[in-house]
Amino acid sequence: MRLLKGHVILRLLNSYLVDSPQPANISYLWNFGSLLGTCLILQILTGVFLAMHYQPHVDFAFSSVEHIMRDVNAGWALRYVHANTASFFFIFVYAHIARGLYYSSYREPRGLLWSIGVIILVLMMATAFLGYVLPYGQMSLWGATVITNLLSAVPVFGKDLVELIWGGFSVSNATLNRFFSLHFLLPFVLAALAAGHLLALHEHGSSNPNGVTGNGDRYTMHPYFTFKDLVTIFLFLLALSIIVCFYPNIMGHSDNYIPANPMQTPPSIVPEWYLLPYYAILRSIPNKLLGVLAMFGSLLILLILPFTDLSRVRGSQFRPAMKFAHWLFIVNFFILMWIGSQHPNPPFVEIGQISTAFYFAWFLLIVPVVGVFENSVFDLAVEK
């Protein structure tokens, strides 16, 4: 029986990692999946070792992090690898999504693959937010207070929901314990979803830059693409090593090195850089409830792309109008990221509102209109 089970496992590994047929023309833009898998493994491993020394208590959380940094052997490396890999995680996932948008990886028969990816993105953000609270510096405390308070906008039971999350009437020991437990658990849920993502990918195979099926021109995963993946994985590990050893706080916030003080509000409360675009969307809408709905909607709206993309051509490489629209979306995303880091004063508020309107219009109007327009142009060209 054990030999049979081992044989089944080896067959699965061989099917996914060795003999899996991949389109011959996929570029390095298809390497972000393996990079994200590497980041997830690093986060789980470093997180487990950090959890051995961390104390989820409002009086000891900050000092326990300092204890890890100063007294635990290689503790500084564990903490900085964990913190900076989170930033790389989001760099890679945003690049992965941008590539998927450009090459229409959401189109059938990969709708399930895309949907699982969107769920992974939402859980990644939740996990990152929970982790940002755990060091319990100034930005941790006030970030947790502001973000959890958003749920008070929910009609009827919003206030009760906030107190349920807090475990009391403010961010306290109960809150920190709950956040720590969830932050420890969610990466394993992410790992299970990543496995489901791979299963869905294996069903129909990877897409390719031409947007057409490539069943007649495919290579096995190993050795052609495993070594290609290793190139970018080693480059990532090199960049991570340089940042951890020389610039460990380049992507962090200095206020989080100040112990949490509920009696002193920081001059500017902002989340980590990778959450700034959604924070900008939240602030751009004056109504609190509508702002919260827009923030969550800005993530879930990715799910409607398989239905709103009406083009008969897959991908943007042969669609000049859609290619231009895609780059407008990328630029707008970076504008939202910049607006989220600024104080909510004119003209940043107005720019944020325009960028937010464009963000939603891109999914609901621009993508379907450009698709219909390009279809009509193609039909005219065929008739002539």
From TrEMBL:
Q: What's the protein called, per UniProt?
A: Cytochrome b
Q: Which controlled-vocabulary keywords does the entry list?
A: Electron transport, Heme, Iron, Membrane, Metal-binding, Mitochondrion, Mitochondrion inner membrane, Respiratory chain, Transmembrane, Transmembrane helix, Transport
User: Ranges for the Cytochrome b/b6 N-terminal region profile domain?
Assistant: 1-210
Report residues binding heme b b566. Answer: 96, 197
Q: What range(s) does the Cytochrome b/b6 C-terminal region profile domain occupy? A: 211-381
User: Topology versus the membrane, per the UniProt entry?
Assistant: Multi-pass membrane protein
A GO molecular function term, named singly, is:
oxidoreductase activity
**Mind giving the lineage of the organism this protein is from?**
Eukaryota, Fungi, Dikarya, Basidiomycota, Agaricomycotina
Q: Name one GO cellular component term.
A: respiratory chain complex III
User: So which cofactors does this thing need?
Assistant: heme; heme b
* Domain of life (superkingdom): Eukaryota
InterPro entries on file: Cyt_b/b6_C (IPR005798), Cyt_b/b6_C_sf (IPR036150), Cyt_b/b6_N (IPR005797), Cytb/b6-like_sf (IPR027387), Cytochrome_b (IPR030689), Cytochrome_b_C_euk/bac (IPR048260), Cytochrome_b_N_euk/bac (IPR048259), Di-haem_cyt_TM (IPR016174)
List localization entries.
Answer: Mitochondrion inner membrane
List residues traversing the bilayer. 28-52, 77-97, 112-134, 178-201, 230-250, 289-308, 320-339, 359-382
The family annotation for this protein states:
Belongs to the cytochrome b family.
Q: Name one GO biological process term.
A: mitochondrial electron transport, ubiquinol to cytochrome c
Chain residues that bind a ubiquinone: 202
